[in-house]
Each structure stands twice: as structure tokens, then as C-alpha cells.
Design a protein that fits this description.
globular, Rossmann fold, alpha/beta, eight-stranded mixed β-sheet, 409 residues, six-stranded parallel β-sheet, 15 helices
């Protein structure tokens, strides 16, 4: 098939590791022709460009800054994205025919370009990878009210995007249940779990030894290390994370390392500089290869989500933890199933992200038996291999594409 994939994530190198590039390489390796449309933000000072990398065509479209920027530019940039993508596709992919139109949320503002592609390719299947349930997630964390004009506008956009989608792949069973419950107009038979997934790779033999990595970042050699890596924004409930670190800042039996950046990073930095706790390290982002080395040198992965969420998030950072045979502690809202799935399958613990004492109990439980960390890490690795590899997501998408009686017949 000829496949076009629309994403808000920047794709500069198809061989980089991410949930999207890994999946696109899988389609390529199965013999499909893949075209990726991805933003090239203003800060990069690059023009719109179509290139080919190892059998995958990448159309990088010049946009405003839409990530790690102020709210005004992000909002305007997101609204303009659809028009910029459509103009770039008309210019650089004119005459191409597509059999499968893949796209992910965020954003929910791609409806017109999906319609445009379907008009040009009337037999094409449109498939939404639902990674973000907006605008309800913004309402949950009080970014704006459910009665506001912003909510009504983006809710209409969300509904329109669902209606133009022939099929929707969700991240987890609770994602599927939520979508069906809150969007009864959408046919339930066209919704399924298409999880976040990765291409499993063996660790490079040239990787630094654990002791060398720990020394590099000033981490203790002998103590277990709990790591959080990823975005540090409002969805992650950073105030709760800070309270958890504060309660545990005098520990001598483990260490916590927080690595990432985002809109709430400055709050963490202020707490860290004020307290200078011996058992906590705060690192502002790392290149992907360096972050991967750091994760390999740690013992337990941490996942944080704001307790106010009514929508079931399913953070993709879980995958790097499982790949490195690390159990997880999930401190989240009660609606996501990331914690319950971890507990049910023996690779993690869960608590609601309200009381830091509950998080401390889980840390104590993890440390009580050293062999437990290894045993749970192995369980997580096996679960990853059975459920979260790109071949699983690929098969799910293709099952819809290859139905004998699809919606057009």
C-alpha cells in the first residue's frame, strides 16, 4: 500500500527510536510505501522539504513553534498546522495516491486535511491513532472550563475528526471504553486497542557500564535508583511529584533521578536548588541516546499523572522502562489503566497521585526485597514482548485494512 502518516511529532531521522518512527519502519519493512508529514518548527529555521531516508519519504513542513513554547504561539501554530500541511502536500506530493491515511492526536484539528486526502483518494482508509483525548484533558486540569468557547470549539473539532475516521485505534482497553461511552455516535465495531509500541532492540555492546553511567551523573553506585524521564508539564502533576520527593529527600537506601523538561520544570528546579537533597538528581533533558544509557543504569521506572484526569492517559514512557527490564511505580488518577495493568501482570505498583505517603509505601515495598525488582522487571519485559511491539500494532491496523467486508462495500 501507499501510506501517508500525519503527525505533530518532529521526524528528522526515520531510524530514530520512537513509537511513530518504529511503526513507520515496520510498514516499510513489510513492503509498503511510506510518506511521513511532520512539522519543522520555526526555531529550526528550515524550509519545507521533501526527502527520502532509507526507503521512507519525509515531508518536513515549516510551521510555527508548536511544542515547548508559549501558549499563544502553540495555539496559533496548531490552528495553522492543517493549512500548512495541506499546502505542502499539494505542492510536494501532487499526483501521489494513497491507500491508507494514518494520523495521530494531538492535534484534533486535522479534519479538513483528512477529508482532502479522502477526496483525492476515494478508496483510501482513514485510521486515527488516538494518543490524546482533547479538549477534555485540558478541562480536567483547569486549563479552561467546559462552558468556555474554547471547549465548545475544540469539542466540535474532536467530533469532526472522529466522524472522518473510518477506524480508531486507542492506547488501552479503558481508552476504548471511554471513547465508546462519550461518543455514542461512533460505531463501536470500528474501535479497537492499537497500543503504543516499539521495535525491540538489543542493547549496543558499546554501551557504557552501569557504574560509568552512574558516575557520569553523580549517582550512587550501589543503591537502587528510581527514574522519571519525560515531559514535566501540568499533565504530570508536578506539584505532587515535588511533594513525593520532599517526603523522601532524606532517604539513604535509594536515589531518585528526574530527567526532562516542560512548562513546570522551573518549579522542580526551584525546589531542588532550595533543598539540595542528597538522594535526588534533577537533569534538564538529555539527547535520546544518552537518556537511553541512563535508563539502562537505573532500577525502577516512575510514571506520574495529575489525579484530576477523567480521561485514561497511557504514557508511552512505560515502554522504555519495560524494555530495560524495570518494574514501575505509577502514581496517577483513578481512570487510567496503566497502573492496574502493571499490577495485574506483576510488573508494577499503583497509587492515586494525592497522598505522597502512598507513593512512599510503594517505594518501601519495592525496596523490601531486592530480588523483587529483578523478578518484576522480567515480568514487564515479557509483557512488552507479548503486547507492545510494533508488529502487534501493525497487525491490528492491517486487520482493519484487509477486512473482506469493509465499510465501503
Amino acid at each position: 500500500m501507499n501510506i501517508i502518516f500525519l503527525t505533530l511529532s518532529r521526524v528528522a531521522d526515520i531510524e530514530e527510536r520512537s513509537i511513530y518512527t518504529d511503526l513507520m519502519r515496520k510498514f516499510r519493512d513489510e513492503g509498503h510505501n511510506v510518506y511521513v508529514v511532520s512539522p519543522s518548527e520555526r526555531r529550526l529555521k528550515l524550509r519545507t522539504k521533501l526527502s527520502e531516508q532509507n526507503g521512507v519519504h519525509i515531508l518536513n513542513v515549516r510551521t510555527l513553534n508548536i511544542q515547548k513554547t508559549n501558549v499563544l504561539e502553540k495555539s496559533i501554530g496548531t490552528l495553522l498546522l492543517e493549512r500548512q500541511y495541506q499546502r505542502a502536500i499539494r505542492k510536494h506530493l501532487k499526483g501521489y495516491r494513497f491507500d491508507l491515511i494514518l494520523y495521530s492526536t494531538p492535534p484534533v484539528t486535522l479534519t479538513h486535511i483528512v477529508r482532502y486526502l479522502k477526496r483525492k483518494n476515494p478508496k483510501a482508509i482513514s485510521y486515527l491513532l488516538l494518543k490524546d483525548i482533547f479538549p477534555q484533558n485540558a478541562v480536567d486540569i483547569k486549563m479552561f472550563s467546559e462552558k468556555s468557547v474554547f471547549y465548545r470549539y475544540f469539542r466540535q473539532k474532536e467530533i469532526a475528526l472522529y466522524k472522518v475516521s473510518d477506524y480508531i485505534g486507542c492506547m488501552s482497553p479503558r481508552n476504548v471504553a471511554y471513547l465508546k461511552e462519550h461518543n455514542p455516535f461512533y460505531p463501536a465495531s470500528r474501535v479497537d486497542v492499537a497500543p503504543n509500541s516499539i521495535e525491540l532492540k538489543a542493547h549496543a555492546s558499546a554501551s557504557m557500564e552501569t557504574s560509568a553511567v552512574r558516575e557520569k551523573y553523580g549517582l550512587p553506585i550501589e543503591r537502587p535508583i528510581f527514574i522519571y524521564g519525560g515531559n514535566l508539564g501540568k499533565p504530570q502533576g508536578i506539584e505532587y511529584l515535588i511533594r513525593c520527593l520532599d517526603v523522601n529527600k532524606h532517604r539513604t537506601d535509594c536515589c531518585f533521578v528526574i530527567v526532562g523538561n516542560g512548562t513546570e520544570y522551573s518549579k522542580l528546579q526551584k525546589w531542588y536548588e532550595t533543598n539540595r537533597p542528597a538522594c535526588v538528581r534533577l537533569l534538564k533533558g538529555l539527547p535520546k541516546d544518552e537518556y537511553d544509557q541512563l535508563v539502562q543504569a537505573c532500577d525502577v521506572g516512575l510514571i506520574f499523572l495529575d489525579h484530576r484526569f477523567t480521561i485514561p492517559n497511557y504514557p508511552s514512557r512505560l515502554l522504555s522502562y519495560l524494555e530495560n527490564k524495570m518494574p514501575v511505580i505509577c502514581a496517577t488518577d483513578v481512570n487510567t489503566d496503566v497502573g492496574s495493568i502493571a499490577e495485574e501482570n506483576g510488573y508494577g505498583y499503583w497509587c492515586e497521585s494525592v497522598r505522597p505517603e502512598d507513593f512512599t509505601v510503594l517505594v518501601d515495598r519495592m525496596l523490601a526485597e531486592p530480588e523483587r525488582i529483578k523478578r518484576m522487571g522480567e515480568s514487564g519485559y515479557e509483557y512488552l514482548k507479548k503486547h507492545y511491539l510494533v508488529e502487534h500494532t501493525y497487525r491490528i491496523i492491517m486487520r482493519f485494512c484487509l477486512k473482506k467486508e469493509n465499510i465501503y462495500h
